[in-house]
Amino acid sequence: MRRILLILAVIAVGSVAVVTAATAAGRGADAVNPAPILAPKAIVSYQPAAGSTDVNPTAPISATVTDGAFDQVALVNPDGAAVRGTLSPERTVWTSAEPLGYGKTYTWRGTATGTDGRQVPVDARFATLNPARQVRGALNIGDGRTVGIAAPIEIQFHSHVSDRAAVERALSVTSSVPTEGAWGWLPDENGGSRVHWRPKEYWKPGTKVTVTAKLYGVAYGDGRYGVADLSSTFTIGRAQIVKADVNSHRMTVIRDGREVADYPASYGLASDPDRNTRSGIHVVSEKFTDKRMVSERYGYDVMEKWAVRISNNGEFIHANPASADAQGSSNVTHGCVNLSTEDAKAYYDTALYGDPVEVTGTPVQLSARDGDIWDWTLSWQQWRQLSAL
Fold first, then answer.
1. Active-site residue, from 196, 282, 318, 334
2. Which of 346, 343, 377, 373 is nearest to 360 (CA)?
3. Would residue 282 show up in a list of annotated catalytic residues for this protein?
């Protein structure tokens, strides 16, 4: 019996040893081949990519999360102010809703939670480009103005524009009455480039016009970029045309197809080409109740009343009592259109920026050398060739 019990005890101890050995062997296997650690499911991507530099401030900016949703997301500037943006209904895409600034570093902040319930940070940076020079532009027609039927739209830049095609692609003109027209680049003036939009024919009266220039972020070339967008909405007024035939010694005013005034006038002295009133379509650009007129060459320095500028070469329609005896009978002026004081005041009161003044009968034509607005001296085909596109 004692022998039997001893054998059973040995068997029991051996069994425990086997179990213990097996258990120890299992723990050793787990230590050698641990269970894999899974990465969070949510992935955040950025446009532009994290770490990007020289980003155009008008470029599309967004953050997107896949296999998850944003808990919080923001893009902040160097001062900590948040950029305006919109978050999709699913909270998976954030998109900027305003342009950024030049030469700034922007930082993404926030968190996103994946479909596995694990959270990941929203954390990245990028930098916008820093232009060598920012160039301003100015529109010639302000919001709410009423202008004449020959009015060109002008944008004057404060510096030279090399990449004119890039700028022109950023410009648009819309009108309540379909109007064919085109942009044309004129020679630089006042140290900067300038571009005009001219309709093929005179504007239709009553047309509402909106010009938009999305210039911010546009590369002008030579390290220059646009500093701000421009826009304006204005109205074309009544159709008033001045007919100025120098050989008739008269100046007539046609309004909406009907003659409303016929004034005796004196034009530039025909015997002196430098004093000829230029033939061609002039455009009213400015008005002065009193205008000082000076010429060293011809030795005069006078103050004239009711002066309406029609070109930048010194041509005005204005009152001049000194030439009263010639008005209606001969041409004696230095190139201006002289009227009596009463008639000049009557015309002055009706004149709008953009009214055409059609001068005929002289051998000298209005041209680019005569200054700002000579758009209508070109044929439509010639004008279209001034476009950069």
1. 318
2. 377
3. no
